[in-house]
Specification:
Distance between the termini: 29 Å
Largest sheet: 6 strands, mixed
Number of strands: 9
Low-confidence stretches: none
Bound molecules: acetoacetyl-coenzyme A
Structural class: alpha/beta
Helix content: 40-55%
Length: 262
Amino acid sequence: MINNKDYEDILVSQIDAGVLTITLNRPKFYNALRNNALEEIVNELTKAEDDSNIKIIIITGGEKVFAAGADIKEMAKLNIVGLLNDIRPVFWRKIANFSKPIIAAVNGFALGAGCELMMHCDIVIAGDNAQIGQPEINLGIMPGAGGTQRLLRTVGKSMAMQMVLSGEFINAEQAKNFGLVSEITLPELSYHRALKLAKVIANKSPIAVRIAKESILNAYETTLEAGLASERKAFTLLAATEDRTEGIAAFMEKRQPTFKGL
Ligand code: CAA
């Protein structure tokens, strides 16, 4: 366990095999994401970006709740000028730009900014108790950190409209059917599954993982034609890596590859 005493809203632990886990840790407030929580997450990601021993991140909130949204009490203090000067979009952009993979292990409520944090992650493993939603409409507001844009691109127009306009939650099964999560487990197993998957990914070539993640996310921004061209360039670029030589040699020699990120 590292760094815990420096933080108020998260716990950080580095298990082994290059996996760093960030646990949202304000259970009394359903892990509501006040600014401090986002800042602490960003601080850890910034350090992880430069640490070649860290290959992948897991973000979780524990077995009962992922996060019930932005901290409404904190948000209530901000008027229009406060919101215009809000630091939160800067934090969100940093999370979105993180180059290594992030897996979310989501149990219980993932609401508002909690759902938006989940959608910033690359893979989502959900406990069967997950309740996912964008209930901002109940507060007379709307999502402000991707809850209209990322949600639409994943679940499509009808379900995005339903969730954002009604504020109703969807369960893990619905979320899986709509592609918001990739697997469902028992709540007590979601972290273990995320960790197992993280270790598999941590063993791959870090450079190939990074470029593949970038290429998939690039699809949000481009036409199919431009995306395919960019994918081909990325694929070609990897021919310059030692990891590619090692990966192909290991296949030919019927052994496990040892990737160095070179
Ligand atoms: N912000 C601040 N505090 C929160 C919170 C939040 N988002 N969600 C829960 N809490 C607090 C509650 O105030 C309560 O604290 P107190 O005991 O001090 O009153 C504690 O957590 C437990 O909550 P409840 O008593 O309400 O628990 P419940 O089991 O009855 O209900 C819930 C759980 C359905 C998640 C309910 O708490 C809820 O609806 N929370 C708000 C969800 C929401 O609206 N999220 C969107 C926030 S806005 C946003 O996220 C904007 C954005 O990104 C741009």
